[in-house]
């Protein structure tokens, strides 16, 4: 069998594996608040998240096209299949390491950093599409701050509207609302995160000469959506614990405000065809909600640990991918 075909098949397998891991790594964030407030039983929350992720993944392709063409030009990428395979191996490795330790790191940062690192290792810094790459970095960096602000504003509005309401009745109402906000957040997660693997597979198809446009084939969309849905059904309990309880003590009103805030930010990015880290956005929205209630309620030590992981993920994954590329290049 032709070497390029073998490499392309390997890329597809690893990309779908990345989406599967993304499903139980990142989707845990989308249902963390509803599980921690007991708005939804864990099993029900996971089924809901898996279903909404699948639907969301099939709805849009703008982010996938951004990933395909804005980090590096797939039409100019020599030895492209090996570059992409190295990037996927590095991103998966970093995701599994952070999942093992229960740290909500960013799959988006890991994947984008890995693609850049492997491409630079193969062809030098000039291979990067700097305009597109900087645009992606800006969206990754700015979105958590935006989520923090939206979370703060959303919680302030909720506190003002419901300040004279009966607490137990309000909590019951917000628990019901959390079912809808968890579904919405899972849907928006699918519209943004599942598309990253779609973009990577399309890159490999172009680099291997199997496709001549940046359009996302339907089989790629369905495969990525299914992989993420199945990954979601496995669940990510370590990360649910961190996001759902270790940043702050979450009540139903906090959970609903955080879910709604992060869904607005993620869906806004999807409409602009920009990849964002759902992990960053959800964690930041929770911090914003907590700050609006009482700054001391936020466990800033845990928040610092999460932020540190955000900062190191992109460069560390880039270095891992560069090393993996050099190893793979010995064989291919």
Describe the secondary structure blueprint for this structure:
Elements: H1 3-36, H2 42-59, H3 62-70, H4 80-100, H5 107-123, H6 130-161, H7 167-192, H8 194-207, H9 218-234, H10 237-246, H11 252-271, H12 278-293, H13 300-331
Helix pairs in contact: 1-2, 1-4, 1-7, 1-8, 1-9, 1-10, 1-12, 2-7, 2-9, 3-8, 4-5, 4-13, 5-13, 6-11, 6-12, 7-11, 8-9, 11-12
InterPro entries: Phos_transporter
Membrane topology: Multi-pass membrane protein
Protein name: Anion permease
Structural commentary:
- The protein has 332 residues and is an all-alpha fold.
- The protein has one domain.
- It contains 13 helices and no strands.
- The chain has helices spanning 3-36, 42-59, 62-70, 80-100, 107-123, 130-161, 167-192, 194-207, 218-234, 237-246, 252-271, 278-293, 300-331.
- Helix 7 (167-192) packs parallel to helix 11.
DSSP summary: helix tally: 13
What is the terminal-to-terminal distance?
Answer: 14 Å
Low-confidence stretches: none
Assembly state: single chain
Helix-and-strand structural type = mainly alpha
Q: How would you spell out the order of helices and strands?
A: HHHHHHHHHHHHH
Radius of gyration: 19 Å
Mean pLDDT: 85
Number of separate strands? 0
Shape field: elongated
Q: Strand-residue fraction?
A: under 5%
